[in-house]
Amino acid sequence: MKKKAKKPIAIRRMNLLFFLVFLFFAGIIFRLSFVQLVEGKNYKTLANTYREKSIPITAPRGLIKDANHQVLVNNKTIWTVTFQINEQQKQDYDQIAETLANLVVKPGEKKEEVKKTILENMDIGPFYKDSKYIPRTILEDVDEKTRAYIEEHKEELPGVEVIPDQMRNYLYKDFMAQTIGYTRKIPAGELEYYQALGYKSSDRIGKQGLEKQYESVLHGKDGYSLVEVNSSYEAIRQKDYVAPVPGNNLILTINKNFQDAVEKALADQVNALRPKYKDVKVGMAVVMNPKTGAVLALANYPRYDLNIWNGLVSQQLYEQIRDYEPNHAIQSGHPVGSTYKPLTILTGLQEKVITTGTIIQDTGRLQYDRRADGSAIVMKNFDGHVYGSLNIQKALQKSSNIFMAEIALRMKQKYGIEKTLERQRYYDHMFGLGVKTGIDLPEETTGITSSAPNYVQHSIGQHDTFTVMQLAQYVSTIANNGYRMKPYLVQAIEEGTQSGTGGRIIYHHEPEVLNKIPMSDQYIQAVKQGMYLVTQPGGTAYSALKGIPIKVGAKTGTAQAANRNKDDNAVFIGFAPYDDPEIAFAILIPYGGTGGSSAGPVARAIVQAYIQQEQIDVTEASVNQQTPTSTP
Length: 632
Hints:
The protein is α+β, with helices and mostly antiparallel strands. Helices cover 35% and strands 21% of the residues. The longest helix is centred in the first third of the chain and has 29 residues, at 9-37. It is elongated, with a radius of gyration of 35 Å. It starts with 8 loop residues before the first helix and ends in an 18-residue tail after the last helix.
């Protein structure tokens, strides 16, 4: 009888493996069935009861400090109202917004407009700005009474919480308002861009001035708190915490006390001029270190309290500040009148149509063209003055229009009108006029280039328009012997710290030469000597600077406004000390009258503030009346 064949060992092992796998999956299926059918209700209740929620913690924005590390802008702790969409709860969005609007509406505000803003901030869809799992900021800086009400009525306001937050605090309100700038919520059109950079829809960004220019420096990195919450999104316990990283701090080139003195002088003079000149509304002044480009003061008047941007700005309030908001010193171009004349002489010298020894007869009248009807087009001096024989220095001291027009005519004879204007503008740009100066502020403009071929008017500053910042760079270039420096407001960036005191310096600005004027130093010295004579007896700035105990070089300007129905623009440029300039300044008061008498008091205050700040020895009270050696 044959024996039954045994199965191979390999097949028996495979069968055993299949059996074990079957038991494993059968166990899983049994367990899943038990969880779903028997314990499913309990797990569902637990899932609805405990969840995790990540609460963003806004990083403090970097501080802004003056040159002495005095804090100008910091952050204050406020109460912020947030809203969390919770599909597991019944949330009457309209009723929530209605209740909150009743709490926060102020006298003079329309409740419906406040309610509409709250609903927009709640971001309830259907197209969400942020993930619906992220709390929305719907109200900022609410008072203690509002906070207490919300805490006491949480059941009526599902999803609403009050949390501590940070808000910008402009410590000196209107100080350097247009230059510092302000922050606002991200506009809808820019939201996608900023979210890609990691911003939340409720974040604020710089909208003007340094706040805007240095947004990436000032903006920190948000942290978060991961908490376990119940079905009402109330925190049960904290599971994780990541501290926010503060933004970095800006250290400016501006000394607060010096800036204060310039702002006060500008405000006082604008207000003093208003009774006489009905159209005077604004004034601008810029002070630079001509050797480095550091901006020592940048003043606009009027100013306004920057803290108003922390709340809702009504249309009525915006109408009140609209004219004050622009930084006119870098954005508004004006004819600059006779302050342009030093450049006309430098252009004439470089183009070889005059020399440092040229004498021109000023008869008070010079015909330079004819109209279509044959009538003469004539250049005259201010108030019809006749100055006789003039060299370069005396032409600047007396502010002779005839001397400048003669230079323009000689250039026309050499080049023709078109190329004469081209050469004039070439030198404009070399000295910083008609081009952006490079100041570290947004929205700088170049002024307006005239389409009229009036090369003679250009020679006396009545053609193209320039900004006060450009004027300051121009006079700085003269003071610095032809080196045009890039102006800057931020001298260093300091690492932000949790304590708010500031850490190590992570960036320090190095002075930057934009260009060296391609002309003989002899020419620049000749013009500087003429600008010194402007401050001496017989000069147009003598009355304004009489008695100042250091030597000053200057040039006044009385520029005819583009609107002929309005008064002239008052303009003044200068530098000091004459022998080794450390400040160069430009002042412009639109429709303010003559440069010497109307802008001169501001120039005087600037020089006096500089003397006081630097504690200069002024024992020799007659030093500004000593005439330097001049080219004949």
